[in-house]
Design goal:
Strand content: 15-25%
Strand order of the largest sheet: 1-2-3-4-6-5
Order of helices and strands: HEHHEEEHEE
Distance between the termini: 51 Å
Shape: globular
Number of strands: 6
Oligomer: single chain
Helix content: 25-40%
Low-confidence stretches: none
Number of helices: 4
Length: about 190
């Protein structure tokens, strides 16, 4: 019985902490220092190579180290974002596609989060308001899901448009009178 009460108190405490975090005002991103090769190697070998029941070739490990060295990092009070430039993006299977910048996004506390407004704001602050981005929900055979981390692929050229989506122009609204749908007003422009 004591364990159940303790577990309930812990769950309640986590909920309150999460609510407090969610209500913190947004702080603009700052650019962080990049990793040295030694720092990147230490992190990769500690975090990636210590995954239970997984073995990685030295080629995969070296690629992960190279990726950490070549990207830029940004951080605010809620998120950390790794920005991989187009020349390092091996995720394009079709070279005829326009250049993309890969944003790898995780919350500071590494908790699962998927707030569309936050992802839009991250894209706007780090890359630009008029650049379009894609988030992929892949076929199960291509699924990579090893952390509470989210990925956006942002077209480098702000004139590139994805040929699907809404084309009626900017529409941002608060909750409409009489509607049961909920919408919070968040200005996603930087």
């Amino acid at each position: 019985m004591a364990n159940k009460k303790r577990d309930k108190r812990l769950r309640d405490l986590r909920k309150r902490r999460k609510k407090i975090e969610a209500n913190k005002p947004w702080v603009p991103f700052v650019k962080c220092d990049t990793y040295t090769r030694e720092e990147a190697e230490e992190i990769v070998r500690r975090e990636i190579c210590s995954t239970p029941n997984q073995e990685y070739s030295e080629e995969v490990v070296e690629h992960a180290i190279d990726q950490m060295i070549c990207c830029e990092y940004y951080k605010n009070n809620k998120y950390q974002v790794a920005v991989y430039p187009p020349e390092t993006n091996a995720h394009l299977a079709d070279a005829s596609w326009p250049a993309v910048i890969h944003l790898s996004i995780k919350s500071i506390d590494k908790s699962p989060v998927h707030d569309w407004s936050d992802l839009q704001r991250i894209k706007n602050e780090i890359i630009g308001n008029e650049n379009e981005a894609i988030e992929i929900y892949p076929a199960e055979s291509r699924l990579v899901n090893m952390a509470n981390q989210y990925h956006l692929w942002v077209f480098k050229d702000p004139d590139v448009r994805i040929p699907i989506g809404f084309n009626e122009g900017r529409k941002v609204d608060v909750q409409r009178e009489g509607s049961k749908a909920k919408q919070r007003l968040v200005d996603t422009r930087s």
